[in-house]
Amino acid sequence: MLAQVSTNKLMTFLIFTCLNVACVSYSDPESVATSYVEVIYDGDVKKFKKLVEERDYRSSLDYKLFIDGKSTGRLETLVHRKGISNMKVSKSTINKNRSSVKIQVLFNDKTIKNLVISLHKKQGRWYVDPMSWARW
User: Fold this and answer.
1) Any residues with CB less than 8 A from the CB of 122 and at least 6 apart, and which?
2) At 57, is the secondary structure helix, strand, or coil?
3) Can you give the pLDDT at residue 12?
């Protein structure tokens, strides 16, 4: 019985820790795409820089605004939509080193947004394409 309780506590701790550090499998486009959506709506620049290649976020005005903290995505989500309630991948396709992931986002105000995140693979790791930003 004690071993069962300890195991349950350990599993809960591991899941909580993994969620808090935003576990991302960079070898899985779905994981990268869903993490990207969370990062954009949370305004987390540090995690954002891990999901987008540096050459891409330095070349896009929208990305520069996001990195400088001048993006409206986070404010709109927090104020108008009351944050994200749930996200689910509705479709995912991979064609060689390209991927497209369709994600349905349910906000706490009950609005739904369908997003398409395009990704590319470089040296075994998936990155979000800059064009994904324009589809929000």
Assistant:
1) 53, 97
2) helix
3) 42
